[in-house]
UniProtKB/TrEMBL annotation, chain A:
Domain of life: Bacteria
UniProt keyword Ribosomal protein, yes or no: no
Gene3D superfamilies attached to this UniProt entry: Anti-sigma factor, zinc-finger domain
Name under which the protein is recorded: Zf-HC2 domain-containing protein
Keywords tagged on the record: Membrane, Transcription, Transcription regulation, Transmembrane, Transmembrane helix
UniProt keyword annotation of Transmembrane helix present: yes
Coiled-coil parts of chain: none
Residues passing through the membrane, by range: 95-112, 118-136, 157-180, 186-203, 210-228, 240-258
TrEMBL record, chain B:
Coiled-coil portions: none
Pfam families documented for this protein: ABC_tran (PF00005)
Residue span, ABC transporter domain: 5-236
Compositional bias ranges of the Low complexity kind: 241-251
Protein name (record): ABC transporter ATP-binding protein
Residues covered by region (Disordered): 238-263
Organism: Streptomyces actuosus
Domain of life of the organism encoding this protein: Bacteria
GO molecular function list: ATP binding
Family statement: Belongs to the ABC transporter superfamily.
Listed InterPro entries: AAA+_ATPase, ABC_transporter-like_ATP-bd, ABC_transporter-like_CS, P-loop_NTPase
Keywords assigned: ATP-binding, Nucleotide-binding, Transport
Amino acid sequence: MTWHVAEEDLRAYLRGDLAPPLLWSADTHLTACAGCRALLADLSDPVALDTGWERLDAELDAPRRGVFEGLLVRCGVADHSARLLAATPVLRRSWMLAVVFVLAMTVLMVRLADNPGLFLGLAPLLPLAGVALSYGPVLDPTYEMAVVAPLHGFRLLMLRTVAVLGAGLVLNGLATLALPAYGLRALAWLLPALALTATGLALTPRLGPVLGPALVGTAWTALLLIARARAHGTPAPFTAGGQLAAALVAAAAVWLLIRLRDRFDSTSAHTPFAGFTHGSAA
Amino acid sequence: MTVTVSASGLTLRYGGTRALDDVSLSLRAGVTGLLGPNGAGKTTLLRVLATAVPADGGSFTVLGHAPGSAAGRQNLRRTLGYLPQNPGFHPDFSAFEFVDYVAILKEQTDRTARHREVRRVLDAVDLSDVRGRRLKRLSGGMRQRVALAAALVGEPGFLVLDEPTVGLDPEQRVRFRELIAQAGEGRTVLLSTHQTEDVAMLCHRVIVLACGRVRFEGTPAELTARADGRVWSSAARDPGARAGWRTGAGTFRNVGDPPKGAELLDPTLEDGYLLTLDDPDGAAPAQQGEAAA
């Protein structure tokens, strides 16, 4: 070993002033060099030294972040928020691959049939399903622990919603790029997607995390079938009037969602867990 | 001893059934056992006290915090450690990552302090050596200890444990008992279990719940005393006994109302529990238990 930490740097290390990458070099070197550790001990008071070792120990002990979590931290997301997002069930690779597969098949069918209706009808449902499944007992195995935690349920829901909605919109956007022949018309899924997602969430405190979004998805499908049966041209939800209506629904649902934010951890209609133990018949 | 958790008239209907029926209780520091048959309402009671499910009626406080308002509920949750009956895990998380995740849910945002706390609780349940191992690679007993570690994050004043020893082998169960006993030092622990042995060895108080109602509240000795003079031995199963089974010695142990001249045996906590479940006067047994003290 030819390199040792300079005394001046050791003093900065003790004060906590040594910045990366020199800090990392010093940490690594000190674990292996008894001489530098002895010099560090001479320069320091025992309390500060214990604190430094504790910090080093904690760093060595900390788990390596996964790819997704590491990416979030590099993008400026706080470490604790990144961990919460990494636990979001639908951000798992299997879900993402399923969404990509569905979108790829849909784009292929649109190209074969030369009609974007299927894509425009399906694309808003994917973010709705993703958000619905990211907070609730269906896919989140730690839901019961999360419900009784002091972290507000609405904050956790919004964190996950932003992440899942963002990922879903990006995938939908990529699929839109694969349909250049339809121009801006291929983007007519965006406002309905926001409207469906916000409405599904706004109904969650009243109807629960499964029934609320499921009803919204069913209503959207019914609306499309009715619109298609009544008109031979562009279905109403994808006309200018339909888009305006979707924007208004999205705004109203967001307003309602904010008003109901405290209900996300207190509503009695919210049935979070299956399998209650039953007592006597009433 | 000061009452730390008190509940009055808790009621919860679920569909057409009454899962909790006017449940009142008070807990103090130390481990209190919650005994009852399947469907007695134990898990429902624990979920209500853990604020996972709101009650239809009644009230309760935990360390002075009532869950009626959003602020009160949040303050209550800050004092709470909860180990659900079927704790879920993100299987790809390591033990450290999982406990770290729960620590974040418990509002521990400072990374250094949080990691120190994660290491402390993993040390407390003796899992430091496997903290980097994926949860899906840990045994059931180890995963249960990880869940206990998660419940211990933040040194909660009220620890709610829902059947933590189910599915563990005898050695793991003994290890878990040691951990629960340690956890009960200086804090209030409510332990739901089917194992009367757990209660006999760990608990300073016991509550028996049946059909959503409290049938007994008192000490384990008081519950055992309910079977004084009501356990006897016979060569064949006594048809008049409420319960009877052949022992390893080949004789029958009977519980109920013994015939004259029966060879009486020392009762166990399980005998007292069985008789309490059968007690037709179960509506107001808490006072009976207290009166026997």
